[in-house]
Amino acid sequence: MKPESDESDPEWVGEALAFLMAMTLIAMVFPSPHARALASAAVFVLLIRLKGANPNLGGVRESVVAAALAAAVTIPILIPSRIEPTGLDPAILLPLLPYHLSVATWEEIVYRGYPLLRRSDFLLLTSSLMFSLIHAFNPGFGLQAFLGIFVAGLALGMIRISWGLVPAICMHATWNVLMEHVWGFPTSGLLGHSLFRSALAGPDLMTGGYFGPEASPIVMIEFALIFAYLRFDGRR
Question: Would you say 40 and 182 are in contact if contact means Cβ atoms under 8 Å apart?
Answer without folding.
Answer: no
